Each structure stands twice: as structure tokens, then as C-alpha cells.
Model the fold of this input.
Amino acid sequence: MRFVHTADWQLGMTRYFLNGEAQPRYSAARRDAVASIGPIAAESGAEFVVVAGDVFEHNQLSPRVVSQSLEAMRAIGVPVYLLPGNHDPLDASSVYTSALFLAECPDNVTVLDRAGVHEVRPGLEIVAAPWRSKAPTIDLVGDVLDGLSADGTTRVVVGHGGVDVFEPDRDKASLIRLAAVEAALDRGAVHYVALGDKHSRTEVGATGRVWYSGAPEVTNYDHIESDPGHVLVVDIDERDAKRAVHVEARKVGRWRFVSLRFTVDNSRDITDLGLNLDLMPDKDRTVVQLALTGSLTVTDKAELDACIDKHTRLFAALTSWDSQTDVVVLPADGEFDDLGIGGFAAAAVDELVATARDGGAQAEDARAALALLLRLVDRGAAA
Ligand SMILES: [Mn+2]
Done:
């Protein structure tokens, strides 16, 4: 028996840093990632798809997002089971009980709206642990595992949230206790645990039966989310008394969010940065966050600005990683000596250089004025 394990679609998510035209393309890519599960299910012979929570970004969605999402799920073609997570809990304002959702929910889509067992077919059950609020006070997964025993039924657990072994604060009441999960696997009561919440594909423990699928399309930079963009095709051998499990990841995501660190101390470093950015493929679906450190002359800073301006037009977004960026701009000796000006203007330049170097309240304005001056006399990089 095979099925597709996915999670954290967070349909309706927007990213504030995307360029105007990039946001709709990113939203479309996220729906495309969902749509691509259909062919994967067909080709792998998957009986159904489980979405382990956070199907939607939140409970207050535009009607357009709800309708388009349900249409994408319809197109998957096999039964799709949705688990309410912390983003889309089954509370009073839940999207899952809204008039629009109920009116347009396709026949192949089932909301796992009860904690406990849902029969897929005789001999095969889903054990669901839906979120009813944003702050549960118990281990919802542990709660549904309690009392389940080995009786020949194949069972897939679908849960959402953090697992205690990954959290520094292990006492948080809502954490999923891995020991309870592994005990249920060990006694043969359940055979696979499909988790959502971590957006990076992650195996939990060493049984090979507990996984976070990760989000099907990237949602954060690679220093936070190292391995997004997959769904998992899970094979459970129903002829085997132990229900041997085989998990295979399929790549569906097409965007990349990359954090880049660079030291920029001179013109050569800026050329090097430009080359690195030039070499990155698929710029229109790549978001780069730059962490720059170093000290530059006013001339070199103008070259850096031109380099960044150019690539900002090419990438889906090119943003500054502000907390990790520290570029000091200081006029170099002689940098303004051959401007071909004299008298009053030259004295003003000397004064600006002194102000820029003293690091006081007006230093930033003075550096900007000097950069503009260089640009006007065409000594800086092309603007
Ligand atoms: Mn979550």
C-alpha cells in the first residue's frame, strides 16, 4: 500500500520581501506544488494523500484562495485527508467549517475533524490528531495513541507540532513525546507517523517510520529551512506482519530562498560578489538575502550599490540581511583629489570628507553626498 505524506502547504501565505510581480508567481508556484502531487500519486500508485496540518496559512482567507486551493486538491484525483494544524485550527472561526469551504469541498477531500480513528478502507485506518486551538495543553498525538493495540489493522498516524527531542524546552505540554510514539510503533498498534510543522524534510528518531515531510515549496531561507520542497511517497508492506515501511522523497518545489554571506573590502570583492550572483540559476524564482560585512571607500560603495541594483532587478527578491550586515564606508586618502575642482567647491569636499570620517550624526549624509558627487563626475560605477 502506498500513500503520499505532505504538510505545511500554508496556502494563502504571502512573503513581504517579494517584488510586486514575484508575489503572484510565488503563490502560483505553491499551488503548482500541490497540483504536482496528482501525477506523483498516479505514477506511484498512491491510494491517498495525507496533509499533516497547516493546509492553510490562517483561518481568514480570501474566497479566491479557498476556491483555488480546493480546485487544486480536486485535481489530485485520489482521496486527500486534511489535518487542521496550528495555522488552521478547528476553532470557532475555522476555514474548514466556513460556508464557502463546505459548499465547494470536492468529494475526494476529507477533513480529519475528529481525534482518533478514520477508516480509509477495511484493514486500513488513519489515526488523526487535529488541532482545535492555537495552544493545545496536551500532547495531541500521544492522546490518540493511548489505548490503540496491534489487531492486524494497518494504521497511519497524522499529527502536527514539535517533537520533544528537538525542543530545548522539553516540558512544554503540547510537545509530541517521541517515547510514546515509538512505544506505539513497537507494539505494532501503528505503522507510520506523518508529521507536519517543520518545513524542512526531517526524519524523527531511528525507526524510519516517523517523518516530517517538510513544506512542498520553500517558505524560508536555507539557514533556517535546509531541505524543503519535497513530498514523501510512503510504502507500507501489508503482507508483512511487521508492515515494513519504505519512504521516498519526491522533489516538487521549484523556488529557492538563499542566505549568502560575503566580505566586501575592495573592488575585487564586489566583482566576486557580482560573479557569484550572476552564476545563480533560475533567478526569477530565487530569493537572496545578503549578509555583507567589510569596509569600503565611497567609490567602492557606489560600485556595490550598482551591483546590488542590477541584481535586484533580476532576482525574485534580493534583500539585505540587516542583522548580519555591517558595511562601513570611509573616504580613502586621495579619493577626491582629482575631481578637477578647486576653490570653494574643493573646500566643501574637504569638509564633507572630514564629516564622513568623524562618524558623528551627519557622517551618513556626508558619505551619501560624496557618493553622489562621484557619480556625477562619473568616477563611481555606472549608476
Ligand atoms: Mn505548524
The first strand starts at residue 2 and ends at 6. Residues 298-314 form the longest helix (17 residues).
